[in-house]
């Protein structure tokens, strides 16, 4: 894939760095966003900022503009699975795995035995075993389920050289004041909102109003609900979502570690604090096959940079325990076998409250339903 990092103008670099999270949740968000850039020495007005975000989106520098939905908090479950695909049958096995609609991502990774890694996403956790049993029957290969046991970090930000290179601009304080309501389930209206924004917001001067208009609801309800979802963790952040391959982050290294169990709670936050670690989890071991219980994902713009970052993870680990050569490994992806995204619609549907009423909103705090049922 072509990388465009070197071709980005200073304004584009400022946008990518500044707005990978913390974009304002107000009716005309590009105005305060542009003002914040000007306060930091980046000369742009709201129209100019909108035009550049649209350009970055249309040229593939961005994957999308809008919310990063936390699928786990919306409903259902996902799990990471490893397996061995014999080299002489690798492509056939990949096809057998990928035909399952529950398989969202599948990667070939460098490992002498476990060379295929995929994610299974389902609305009901009991379905994981069914899917894996089917894959084992069809491929003749055992699978190794590695569900997340503890999450230390999910912060896939990809910064570039240029203005605001720290990526610390946060305008999430703007917008309506809200409080979490404690509900794990979704209302039908909330479900429709999630489905509408999961692929991104319209790149317009009034993206939230455009979403509200498409759903036939009040814009204030959209603003309040998205702000509440941020507070509740249903949405991790709102902003630009870069195509990290286009930015030059082509080296995808999954480092795995056999951390002493009594140190995981201490080591986890320390590794998660490294700004280049995008994902950091505790997962189960599989005796005799997989000795590692700690995963840290890193990305680099070259093999050398990626190796340096992995070395830094090891140095951080070594501050807490004596890391031997057999206590860790790094598995680089060599091929994307499938990448269709999490099937969030089914997971949200299973977590949506049934309703027998269709109540129109009467004020900005009312709970609307969609009009196009």
What do you see in this structure?
The relative contact order is 0.19. β3 and β4 form a beta hairpin. The protein has one domain (1-67, 149-334, 344-373). The chain has helices at 10-18, 30-39, 46-58, 71-74, 90-98, 127-139, 188-197, 207-215, 219-232, 264-272, 303-318, 344-350, and strands at 62-69, 77-83, 103-109, 116-122, 143-146, 150-154, 235-242, 251-257, 277-282, 294-300, 328-339. Helix content is 33%, strand content 21%. α2 crosses α3 and α8 packs across α9. The chain has 373 residues and is α+β, with helices and mostly antiparallel strands. It has twelve helices and eleven strands.
Secondary-structure map with pairings?
Blueprint: H1 10-18, H2 30-39, H3 46-58, E1 62-69, H4 71-74, E2 77-83, H5 90-98, E3 103-109, E4 116-122, H6 127-139, E5 143-146, E6 150-154, H7 188-197, H8 207-215, H9 219-232, E7 235-242, E8 251-257, H10 264-272, E9 277-282, E10 294-300, H11 303-318, E11 328-339, H12 344-350
Antiparallel strand pairs: 1-7, 2-4, 2-5, 3-4, 3-11, 6-9, 8-10, 8-11, 9-10
Helix pairs in contact: 2-3, 8-9
Structure summary, number of beta strands: 11
Sequence of secondary-structure elements: HHHEHEHEEHEEHHHEEHEEHEH
Q: Write down the Rg.
A: 22 Å
Q: Which word captures the global form?
A: globular
Unreliable stretches, pLDDT < 50, 5 or more residues?
A: 356-373
The biggest sheet amounts to: 9 strands, antiparallel
* Fraction in helix: 25-40%
Ends distance = 41 Å
Spatially, the strands of the biggest sheet line up as 5-2-4-3-11-8-10-9-6
Write down the domain tally: 1
Helix and strand content put the structural class at alpha+beta
Percent strand equals 15-25%
Average pLDDT score: 89
The number of helical segments is 12
């Amino acid at each position: 894939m072509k990388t465009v990092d070197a071709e980005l103008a200073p304004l584009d670099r400022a946008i990518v760095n500044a707005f990978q999270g913390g974009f304002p949740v107000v009716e005309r968000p590009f105005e305060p966003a542009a003002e914040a850039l000007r306060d930091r020495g980046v000369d742009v007005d709201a129209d100019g900022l909108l035009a550049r975000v649209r350009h970055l989106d249309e040229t593939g520098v961005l994957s999308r503009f809008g919310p990063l939905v936390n699928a786990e908090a919306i409903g259902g479950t996902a799990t990471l699975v490893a397996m061995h695909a014999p080299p002489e049958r690798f492509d056939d096995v990949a096809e057998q795995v990928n035909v399952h609609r529950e398989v969202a991502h599948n990667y070939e990774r460098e490992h002498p035995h476990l060379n295929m890694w995929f994610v299974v996403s389902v609305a009901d956790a009991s379905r994981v075993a069914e899917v894996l049993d089917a894959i084992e029957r069809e491929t003749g290969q055992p699978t190794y389920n590695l569900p997340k046991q503890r999450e230390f970090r999910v912060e896939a930000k990809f910064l570039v050289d240029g203005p605001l290179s720290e990526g610390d601009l946060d305008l999430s304080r703007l917008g309506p004041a809200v409080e979490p309501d404690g509900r794990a389930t979704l209302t039908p209206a909330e479900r429709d909102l999630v489905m509408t924004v999961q692929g991104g917001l319209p790149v317009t001067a009034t993206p939230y109003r455009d979403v509200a208009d498409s759903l036939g609801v009040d814009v204030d309800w959209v603003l309040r609900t998205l702000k509440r979802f941020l507070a509740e963790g249903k949405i991790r952040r709102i902003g630009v979502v870069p195509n990290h391959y286009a930015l030059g982050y082509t080296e995808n290294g999954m480092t795995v570690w056999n951390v002493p169990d009594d140190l995981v709670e201490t080591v986890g936050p320390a590794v998660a604090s490294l700004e280049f670690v995008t994902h950091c989890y505790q997962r189960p071991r599989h005796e005799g096959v997989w000795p590692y219980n700690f995963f840290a994902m890193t990305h680099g713009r070259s093999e050398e940079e990626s190796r340096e970052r992995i070395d830094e993870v090891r140095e951080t680990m070594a501050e807490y325990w004596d890391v031997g050569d057999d206590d860790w490994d790094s598995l680089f992806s060599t091929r994307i076998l499938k990448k269709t995204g999490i099937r969030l619609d089914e997971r949200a549907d299973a977590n949506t409250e049934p309703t027998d009423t269709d109540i129109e909103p009467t004020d900005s705090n009312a709970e609307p339903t969609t009009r196009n049922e």
